[in-house]
Amino acid sequence: MTQHPTAAERRPANRGPKAAAGNRAALVSAAREIYAAHGLDAPLSGIARRAGVGQAVLYRHFPDRDAIAAAVLEENVRQIEQAAGEGTALAEVLGVLTWHLTQSAAFISLLHADEASGHPNTRTFALDMHDRVERALRACLPEGHRLGTPDDLMLAVSMVSGAVTGPTHEKREHRALAAWGLLGVTVGPVRPFEG
Q1: Secondary structure in 3-state letters for the chain
Q2: CA dihedral 128, 130, 133, 135 (to 10 degrees)
Q3: Burial class for 96, CB neighbours closer than 10 Å (0-12, 13-18, 19+)
Q4: 159, 98 in Cβ contact below 8 A?
Q5: Would the CA dihedral through 66, 68, 69, 75 be positive or negative?
Q6: Which residues, other chains included, contact 127 with Cβ-Cβ below 8 Å and sequence gap of 6+?
Q7: pLDDT by residue for the chain (195 residues), tens digit each?
Q8: Would you state the pLDDT for residue 15?
Q9: What are the backbone dihedrals phi and psi of residue 62, each rounded to the nearest 5 degrees, phi first?
Q10: What pTM was computed for the model?
Q11: How far apart are CA 172 and CA 161, in angstroms?
């Protein structure tokens, strides 16, 4: 007679509070992937499944859809700030920015904060994130750079983000790099910041 494991035997051991940080990081990473593939309306159950946690864990960290989307966007901006903060050349930081543009329609809309509508908190959040990206890019902008005038830097970012279309990551990256090229701006490797 074959014995089947009980539910308790099949379920991994609950690691308790020490797993919280890892679970949160897994959820943010999973949300980025799911949103890139299916948009911001993707089911939250898919995010939990991709992260390898239950929906209760997802809701413990992120009480609603807006909270997890904000966490993903916060992580995008944090990576750009970190890349700029390490004295990285502008081209390298633009490579990180471009990677995020090709991965996230939500990140693109964040960079168009002046057009943000809806709830006042959403607009405030978008403006704050937009300003942080601009400060990070300005910190590594060499003196005399063609994008050094007051509005040119973020206007160029907005123009490139508008060109980031296409059904695949490769197509979106190709279009983004072509747009930067038309603006006469050199961009380093398109990849996430891993520092």
Answers
A1: CCCCCCHHHHCCCCCHHHHHHHHHHHHHHHHHHHHHHHCCCCCHHHHHHHHCCCHHHHHHHCCCHHHHHHHHHHHHHHHHHHHHHCCCCHHHHHHHHHHHHHHCHHHHHHHCHHHCCCCHHHHHHHHHHHHHHHHHHHHCCCCCCCCCCCCHHHHHHHHHHHHCCCCCHHHHHHHHHHHHHHCCCCCCCCCCCCC
A2: -70
A3: buried
A4: no
A5: positive
A6: 113, 116
A7: 556 655 444 445 455 667 788 999 999 999 988 887 777 788 999 999 999 999 999 999 999 888 898 898 898 899 999 999 978 899 999 999 999 988 876 677 666 655 555 556 677 888 888 899 999 999 999 999 989 887 899 999 989 988 988 888 899 999 999 999 999 999 999 998 987
A8: 55
A9: -135, 100
A10: 0.79
A11: 10
